[in-house]
Amino acid sequence: GIPAATVEMAIRDCRLGTISLSLRPPSYELQHGAVLLSRVVPDYAIKATDRNGHTLANIAQALSGVRPPRGWVGPGGATAFDVFAGYLVLDALVANQDRHEENWAVLRPLPGQGETTLAGSYDHSSSLGFNLQDQRRSKLLEVGLDQFAARARAQRFERATDGKLSLVDLASRAVARCSPAAAEHWRQALASCHRSVWQGIVGQVPGMSVPSRTFVTRLLEINHGRLLDVV
Q1: How many CB atoms are located within 10 Å of the residue 65 CB?
Q2: Which end of the chain is more exposed for a tag (fewer CB within 10 A), N or C?
């Protein structure tokens, strides 16, 4: 139930990949989080080594007055940050460690053309152990994925604060900042997501090896359980 870019499998020049529809409607400007943070954090420096300023508190401030994405299906009166917290829940589920300040954005219309809204979630490619080879996946499956899953950190957030957290703990803190209705919405969304859901999705991906399918399914299962314990 998270607003997100529409992505489909595609082939170009005989190479398998993906293609994504643009999230930016006509007459709208897509402004990355870095632009918004520069307005609320003094001397903000994009992609600084310490990620200084990229915190939940600053993101909540930067999104103040911004509306949820178009087509949002959730509690009435939800804020943009209420929805953004769901993005972090998704990150924790799929082990996406790349939610830096250019991997979230708002859609700002021309003057008089509408409201500024949070953009749907996008760029989830750094997820699910994407860079591992099958030999490594098989070894991790032999010893168990619990320690591997626990190592996923919020490394694109401020190193001194939020960047020390696991993705699961960051998601938990984000949901704790939500309105009560939004927090319950994400808890229910997690509860309704179960093994058969992602097994069906993974089963439709062409060309995945058995170790890859098994690894992804098991990692999702572990992260799902961890999230249910804290969100």
Answers
A1: 9
A2: N
